[in-house]
């Protein structure tokens, strides 16, 4: 069973940084992608990045491009979202997502609050 667990959220001042982690387990397929989504209060969930596990393909939405790089530690089966230059509008619950053979798997999310 595929499981994703996010961690690293918290309260940070505008301009600060946080690093979110997505620990994956149960993934046996060789090819998959890990995405990061966020849902701000009163808004729909939006995709902010997606990176293939081999690193060959990546996507970042314009609002985070250059600020939120994604890295991974394959030995730990963990993907990281490094969030820099945070803005109050980045406040949201952040989720990681895995797409494997057309099926979506989700973590429970971690809350990031950016104060002005």
Which regions contain 5 or more consecutive residues with pLDDT less than 50? none
* Proportion of strand residues: over 45%
Structural class: mainly beta
Q: In one word, what is the shape?
A: globular
Give the termini separation: 40 Å
User: In total, how many beta strands?
Assistant: 11
Question: What topology emerges from the helices and strands here?
Answer:
Blueprint: E1 3-7, E2 10-13, E3 18-25, E4 33-39, E5 46-52, E6 58-60, E7 70-73, E8 78-83, E9 92-100, E10 103-106, E11 110-115
Parallel strand pairs: 2-11
Antiparallel strand pairs: 1-3, 3-8, 4-5, 4-9, 5-6, 7-8, 9-10, 9-11
Give me some keywords for this one.
four-stranded antiparallel beta sheet; 116 residues; mainly beta; 0% helix; seven-stranded mixed beta sheet
Offer a concise description of the structure:
The protein has no helices and 11 strands. With about 120 residues, it is mostly beta strands.
Could you explain how this protein is built, in words?
With 116 residues, the protein is mainly β. The chain is 0% helix and 54% strand. The chain has strands at residues 3-7, 10-13, 18-25, 33-39, 46-52, 58-60, 70-73, 78-83, 92-100, 103-106, 110-115. Strands 2, 4, 5, 6, 9, 10 and 11 form a 7-stranded mixed β-sheet that branches. It has a 4-stranded antiparallel β-sheet with strand order 1-3-8-7, with no helix packed on it. Strand 9 and strand 10 form a beta hairpin.
């Amino acid at each position: 069973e595929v499981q994703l667990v996010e961690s690293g959220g918290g309260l940070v001042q505008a301009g600060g940084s946080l690093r979110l982690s997505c620990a994956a387990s149960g993934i046996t397929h060789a090819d998959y992608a890990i995405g990061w989504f966020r849902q701000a209060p009163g808004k729909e969930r939006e995709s902010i990045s997606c990176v293939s596990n081999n690193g060959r393909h990546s996507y970042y939405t314009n609002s985070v491009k250059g600020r939120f790089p994604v890295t991974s530690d394959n030995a730990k089966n963990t993907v990281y979202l490094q969030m820099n230059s945070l803005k109050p509008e980045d406040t949201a619950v952040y989720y990681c997502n895995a797409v494997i053979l057309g099926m979506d798997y989700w973590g429970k999310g971690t809350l990031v609050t950016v104060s002005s």
